[in-house]
Amino acid sequence: MLYRKITRYVEDFLSSENDKILILDGARQAGKSFTIREAGSRMYPHFVEINFVEDDEGEQFFKNIHTIDEFYFKLSSKYGLNLGDYHNTLIFLDEIQQYPQYFTLLKFFREDRRYRFVASGSLLGTKLRSTTSLPVGSVVIKQMSQLDFEEFLIANGMGFDAIDTLKKCFFNRESLDESMHNHVLDLFHRYLLVGGLPDAVNTYLNTHNIMLVRDVHHSIMEMYRNDASKYEKEAIRKLLIRKIYDMIPSQLENKKKRLVFKDIRDKKGDRFETYLEEFEYLTTSGIAIEVKAITNPAYPLTESMQKNLLKLYLNDVGLFTAVLYGSDILPVLNDEGSINLGSVYETVVAQQLKAQGLEIYYYDNRHKGEVDYLIDNPMHASTMPIEVKSGKDYKRHSALSNMVNNPDYHIKEALVLSNAREVERDGKIIYLPIYYSTFLSTMPHNQPIYF
To answer: How confident is the model at residue 215 (pLDDT cuts 50, 70, 90)?
Structure first.
């Protein structure tokens, strides 16, 4: 069974006095259902799971329900022997986006207090905006991503003591010894191939067969494409969503790596606003990670965001390497110099930052160059630039150097992530091993302040 850090959050929430309804949001196949099922069935003597997607594809028993009395009648007729009361019964509404009227009903479930409820879903941002009566104040929405690299290390047998040591080394800006560095870096390269989707990770752990892992990847990507057909009514939008999704790997192989909007339909004059709803679907569904441009890296970053310059990354690095390399694993495992892994490294770092709940941007200036990522540094009320390097020339970064040396930007610290083992500081720039990207949310400036 895969260890998921979010399980502790779910357990604490369900055992607390908080009577709001927890909804886990995230891409399909990220592990939301398993996490709730495992925790809920263990914590509650009476546990009932209703998958609305399966219901909609089958008997549609719970589909045309608009009052809690109707729901309780159906629930009791099907699961009556497994129902107790509010304190010992948990009802899990899985894939709640399939039946949007249940968003409204959540408020009344909470007020009625007949049973405890929990839910999961995807596309919640879009669905909640189109719901006529939002359950304001009745729900807590928690984002869940697939396994990050820290969880992948644990899945591969690394103990919690070792993980704590890695975190301390990162926090204290210390290098690992060579043997440990090589071990963690090897696992990192395997993570580039497998990614963090639970089915892919389990297949890798059980078989170590890249062909079977790739079968999982291709199946999930096809499911992501088909989901657009389920949740979008307009045929043209379905096609555009699929086309943009399929374009992401090739766009990332371009020098600028950002989307060229006129290439989507091969139509001059197309702009960001032309595909606003398509981009919203891809990002709110969790199948793509958006990184918007900043031309003025002032804190807070959201105030100077440029919406018309956009990068999209696949939500999982394993899916990305499946597209680029298929079953040819040696270029990634051996870090072959003839292969440019720049877009792969950028994808995995975007995935780690997103999994840690960080808002991510990139710096784009026609005259001063581009920096891969920017995040807010609240402790110093400044911006933290992050440059990702896959090659040996990781100390060449003119745009980053210009940024940190510009007094108008007030940069306190910048990071360069690469394969190099040693942690080094050169002025404001800190060089870190690429695998430390999984701990960036535990940076010293993000530590809690007690008073």
So the answer is: very high
- Structure tokens that stand for 270 in this block: 């197309």
Which among 103, 117, 110 has a CA at the least distance from the CA of 49?
Answer: 117
Global pTM?
0.92
Contacting residues for 301 by C-beta, under 8 A, at least 6 apart: 294, 359, 361, 374, 375, 376, 383
DSSP characters for 177-243? PHHHHHHHHHHHHHHHHH-S-HHHHHHHHHH--HHHHHHHHHHHHHHHHHHHHHH---HHHHHHHHH
Residue type, 52: F
For the chain, the first-to-last Cα distance in angstroms comes to 39
Max distance between CA atoms of the chain, in angstroms, equals 69
Decide if 134 contacts 128 (C-beta within 8 A): yes
What is residue 446's predicted lDDT score, i.e. its pLDDT? 44
Q: How far apart are CA 302 and CA 293, in angstroms?
A: 10
Q: What is the pLDDT of residue 449?
A: 33
Closest by alpha carbon to 22, among 125, 116, 158? 116
Within 10 angstroms of residue 358's Cβ, the number of other Cβ atoms is 17
Residue 315: phi, psi to the nearest 5?
-70, -10
Closest CA to 351 of 318, 394, 327: 318
Q: Across the strands, what pairs with 38?
A: none
- Name which of 128-137, 220-229, 236-245 the model is least confident about: 128-137
Report the alpha-carbon distance of residue 88 to residue 111 in Å, rounded.
Answer: 17
Other CB atoms within 10 A of residue 393 CB: 9
How many C-beta atoms lie closer than 10 Å to residue 403's C-beta?
23
Q: Which alpha helices (H) appear in 5-134, and where do they start and end?
A: 6-14, 32-43, 52-57, 68-79, 101-112, 124-129
Phi first, then psi, for residue 227 (nearest 5°) are: -60, -35
